[in-house]
């Protein structure tokens, strides 16, 4: 059985270690961009991976994975000793993770903090909407007053994906 005093001591140690950065969650890899809007299928996506706050790895140790597949080095560009970029074609409608990863280092630090040498960005993909056609709107009119609530419909154009957030702006003029 653990006494209240031992629990208090343990809590104090945990707080002291956390205050000195002992439980730091800082990654040593970061990507830009860190988030994406929907990417248009058929386009290219470029991401950059940067090494921060460590000398355990260099750009030569970095590689990219798209879901579970390692991306071909032919698609990489080494920017400097601490950054690489990749340009990949956007294919398929399923969202995928693009991970920047570091090859396993030889140091004990790398072994103990391997999770800090991985960073990912979720690629959400789809087809954007085309310009709507055959737009028609109906509003209810009672005597000389037209309701501010009305209903519109239109024909969609192109291969719009339902997951792609879409905002339409309708300009209304009363004649």
From TrEMBL:
N-terminal signal peptide: 1-24
Gene3D superfamilies: Immunoglobulins
UniProt key word Signal: yes
Keywords, comma-separated and alphabetical: Immunoglobulin domain, Signal
Keyword rRNA processing: no
Domain named Immunoglobulin C2-set-like ligand-binding: residues: 38-107
Pfam families: Lep_receptor_Ig
UniProt protein name: Cytokine receptor-like factor 1
Organism: Notothenia coriiceps
Gene designation: LOC104946687
